[in-house]
Amino acid sequence: MRDEENFALGLRKRDPEAWARLYEEYLPRIYRYIALRVRNQTEAEDLTEQVFLRALESSPSFKWRGAPISSWLFRIARNQVIDYWRTDKSKRTLRLNASLVSDTIDPERAAERNSDIRQLIQAVGQLTQAQRDVIELRFAGGLSVSEVANILGKSPGAVKVLQHSALATLRRKLSGWSNHE
Amino acid sequence: MNKGFEDILDTCLDRITLKGDSIERCLESYPEQAVELEPLLRAAISIKEGSSIEPRPEFRQLAKARLLSALAAKEEKRERRRLPLWSWQRRWAVAIAVILVLFLAGGGTVVASSNSLPGDLLYPVKIATEEVQAFFTFGDEARANLHIKFAERRVKEIELLAERGRNIPESVLNRMHDQTAWAIWLVDRNESLREKLAVKLETLTDSQRVVLKGVIEGVPQKAELRVREALERSLERSERAYIEAVRLRDKIRKDRLPKLEDLRIIPWRNTSPGS
Q1: Which has more confidence, B135 or A76?
Q2: Considering only CB atoms, which chain A residues are within 8 Å of B82?
Q3: Mind telling me how many Å the CA of A78 is from chain B's nearest CA?
Q4: Nearest-angstrom CA–CA distance, A106 and A19
Q5: Distance from CA of A60 to the nearest CA of B (A)
Q6: Residues 214-273 of chain B whose Cβ lies under 8 A from any Cβ of chain A
Q7: CA atoms within 13 A of residue A101's CA, in its CB half-sphere
Q8: Are B50 and B25 in contact (CB under 8 A)?
Q9: What is the distance in angstroms between the CA of the first residue and the CA of the last residue of chain B?
Q10: Nearest partner of B113 among B105, B125, B101, B104, judged by Cα
Q11: Residue A68's CB: how many other CB atoms inside 10 A?
Q12: Complex-level ipTM
């Protein structure tokens, strides 16, 4: 806890070491979370970068009140994605076929991975918004239930209930797909 | 009862996804709930694995450099930080690898590779040679020029691949955009470079747009959706880079405009016939 407080202080003071640490620890998780939500590699890269720049902008007013830093950063990411969909409604029809994994190393493997991801996005898309939030933050963002609860402004108990119901739905959807194959 | 189950499910999820425990060990801990738990845990693992999308290493490097640069700018530190374009370990590794290739294959291979295109046997040599060249290039101006030169090469390669009806790998498009983004970043942070390179950047990004538009128009309808989308995404990135380059060029114009406080007030002279 002490470490988290010092970390937060470093971020507030705009200490380069603290910011480099924030970047290293959170960039892949923030990217994964955003990539699943916007379904497009270029857009995900842009938005991820903006999350960190926005965090930098707001860091002087950031006060550590015991909540983990992840909650602060993921809240910015979540708002960023909400704004993204809100500002340009044409993106709602954005291609679900867009690839999130580049074909740099192994095109076949990349195609396979993109197909898995699309399947997952389709399954997650059938959840309620509250269930989706929980699943995306918990599994793509790699957050704990208490961190997710903090971001969504819900109790940990409520998040656990949503997690349970979401997993039960996804289990049916995903097993349905694998049975069709 | 149900609340208890949700707690158990969550404990198992933490153990598996965060601490690397196995499903079997979790089920052993909760034998009474095992039947209900197992499918949910397996679904959770599928989701976790499915969502493990890694960002491109080039993006990671570039975004980090931009973030630290923005941080330095915020702090108004006058001395410029010397940010590594690549980590030193990697740069040394690449340099040693290429020197070995040069030694084993001889200089003729490197010369021959200069005309190679993506997909050719010698193309990796061309790219590795470029990385070594970048490794031994110091100073913002020289680096920016080099990135522009490499990005121009990528444009040429894309054009030639399209002309010959060959596949344009996404990695080439990404490399072109990364090299352009590095050049823009270097020019943006260094005022004196703007005068010298902003127009060059504008020309580069404009040519990227033109070439990509041409390539997209020429892509056959039956081409894979994946190919078409990669090109469209690439065009979007070029459009954004072009806007950035124009912004840099406009900055020079603004800098050139005399500021109000610099204007000399010329006394008004009455030239009316009566004076």
Answers
A1: A76
A2: none
A3: 16
A4: 33
A5: 11
A6: 225-226, 229-230, 233, 236-237
A7: 19
A8: no
A9: 104
A10: B125
A11: 19
A12: 0.82
Cβ separation A139–B47 shorter than 8 A: yes
| Model pTM score | 0.64
Identity of the residue numbered A94? L
* Torsion, CA B209, CA B210, CA B216, CA B220, rounded to 10: -170
Residue B265 has a pLDDT of 55
Given the structure tokens 């979007």, which residue do they identify?
A: B236
Residue with tokens 């050139």: B256
A41-55, A71-85, B92-106, B216-230, range with the lowest pLDDT:
B92-106
Predicted confidence at residue B138, as pLDDT, reads 85
Assigned token pair, A8: 């937060």
Torsion, Cα B269 B271 B272 B275, to 10 degrees, reads 80
Interface test with A, best of B14, B15, B48, B51 (most A CBs within 10 A): B51
Which range of A135-149, B133-147, B252-266 scores highest in mean pLDDT? It is A135-149
For residue A130, pLDDT over 60 is answered with: yes
Average pLDDT, chain B: 79
Q: Which amino acid is at B97?
A: A
pLDDT of residue B101: 62
**pLDDT at res. B1:** 45
pLDDT at residue B59, rounded to an integer: 87
Give the long-range contacts of residues B7-13, CB within 8 A, separation 24 or more: B7/A160, B8/B33, B8/B37, B9/A160, B9/A163, B9/A164, B9/A167, B9/B37, B9/B40, B9/B41, B10/A145, B10/A160, B10/A163, B12/B37, B12/B41, B13/A138, B13/A163, B13/B41, B13/B44
pLDDT tens column, A18-50: 999 999 999 999 999 999 888 888 888 989 999
Whether residue B47 and residue A135 make contact (CB cut-off 8 A), yes or no, is yes
Instruction: Note which residues in 143-172 of chain A have CB less than 8 A from chain B.
Output: 144-145, 157, 160-161, 163-164, 167-168, 170-171
Classify residue B78 by its DSSP letter. S
Token pair of A19 as six digits? 């910011």
